[in-house]
Design goal:
The protein is mainly alpha-helical. The chain has 4 helices and no strands. Helix 1 runs antiparallel to helix 2, helix 1 runs parallel beside helix 3 and helix 1 packs antiparallel against helix 4. The longest helix has about 80 residues. The radius of gyration is 36 Å and the shape is elongated.
Length: about 220
């Protein structure tokens, strides 16, 4: 009976064994080469993805840094406008002359302009958004204090004292809100490499660090 299957390689003559091993070796080499090529492609894809993520993060950091500088500049300008208003509203009427209704109306216009930078804010990182929102809240609270003060100086004299006290309390709340915003703004400046930027109201305490340090 003839053999239907080939002989085991260990029974074949050496030449036949070599001939049969060559195709298998070639197939093995091809498979290894294909695996290496696929692996190299995966590594290249991973490197490209990591590089793209790094570029995105770098661009985001640059954009956020610009927003922080602009927000700090805006806060300094607004502080110069709001500080005298809050001081006047909280002044003791027994030792200083109260502001007139016309002056209070001018304050209202100042507060309207102070709110304009926050009307259409850009989207930044969470920390920067918190600082911007806190500043907007402080400006809004200061605006309420001005409205209350205008009401106090335009009602009959017998009703002015309690309204004036209410306005002073609102002004104090605005100053406290500004302090929180200034602290957050200082922190994002440090984190972004700008160093300490103290945009606190006059007389407000802060960390005492030197301006521009810590960046």
């Amino acid at each position: 009976m003839s053999r239907r299957t080939g002989k085991p390689s260990y029974l074949l003559p050496a030449a036949d064994a070599r001939r049969r091993r060559v195709p298998r070796l070639a197939a093995t080499i091809a498979a290894v080469g294909l695996a290496a090529a696929l692996g190299g492609g995966a590594v290249g894809y991973t490197d490209g993805t990591e590089s793209a993520i790094a570029d995105i993060r770098k661009a985001e950091a640059h954009r956020d840094s610009q927003q922080i500088v602009e927000l700090t500049t805006t806060a300094r300008r607004l502080r110069e406008q709001i500080q005298p208003i809050l001081t006047a509203i909280q002044a003791d009427p027994s030792t200083s002359r109260p502001a007139s209704a016309d002056q209070a109306r001018q304050w209202q216009q100042t507060m309207v302009r102070a709110a304009e930078p926050f009307a259409d804010p850009p989207s930044g990182t969470t920390a920067t958004n918190v600082a911007r929102t806190a500043l907007r809240g402080a400006v809004g609270q200061a605006s309420l204090a001005v409205d209350a003060y205008l009401l106090a100086v335009t009602v009959p004299p017998a009703q002015r004292a309690p309204l004036a006290k209410l306005a002073a309390r609102q002004a104090a709340q605005a100053a406290a809100a500004w302090s929180v915003a200034a602290t957050q703004l200082d922190q994002v400046n440090v984190d972004s490499g700008q160093g300490h930027q103290h945009v606190y109201l006059e007389g407000d305490s802060h960390d005492g660090a030197q301006e521009g340090s810590g960046g």
